[in-house]
Amino acid sequence: MEILVFATNVERKRQVSKIKTLLTCLTGIGDWNFDLEDCDRILRVESKGISPRRIETVLNNAGFSCRELE
């Protein structure tokens, strides 16, 4: 498993619930979590064989800002 880390604009638990629906549909994602207390609203994803760009695209298309952190 690989750990991918993203900066997002997610601020509320209700938004996390919406994203949960999106992420659970993607094959290759294990566990994931948000750190809404961090200034970058960090999303951490355990992945296997899924591109960071795919996750960015799914969240961006849903109206959220999401970019991978190096």
Features:
about 70 residues, alpha+beta, Alpha-Beta Plaits, 4-stranded antiparallel sheet, 2 helices, globular
**Assembly state:** single chain
- Going by helix content, strand content and strand pairing, the class is alpha+beta
Shape: globular
What is the overall pLDDT average? Answer: 94
CATH class: Alpha Beta
Low-confidence parts: none
**Secondary-structure element string:** EHEEHE
Strand content: 25-35%
Distance between the termini: 17 Å
Within the CATH hierarchy, at the fold level, what is the topology? Alpha-Beta Plaits
Total of helices: 2
* CATH architecture heading: 2-Layer Sandwich
Structurally, how many domains make up the residues?
1
Share of helical residues: 25-40%
Can you summarize the main beta sheet? 4 strands, antiparallel
Radius of gyration in whole Å, from Cα?
11 Å
Give the strand order, joined by hyphens, for the main sheet: 2-3-1-4
Instruction: Please report the total strand number as a whole number.
Output: 4
In short:
By secondary structure, this protein is of the alpha+beta class. The chain is built from two helices and four strands.
Question: What does this molecule look like?
Answer:
- This protein has 70 residues and is α+β, with helices and mostly antiparallel strands.
- The chain has a single domain (2-68), classed as Alpha-Beta Plaits.
- Helices cover 31% and strands 33% of the residues.
- A four-stranded antiparallel beta sheet has the order 2-3-1-4, covered by helices on one side.
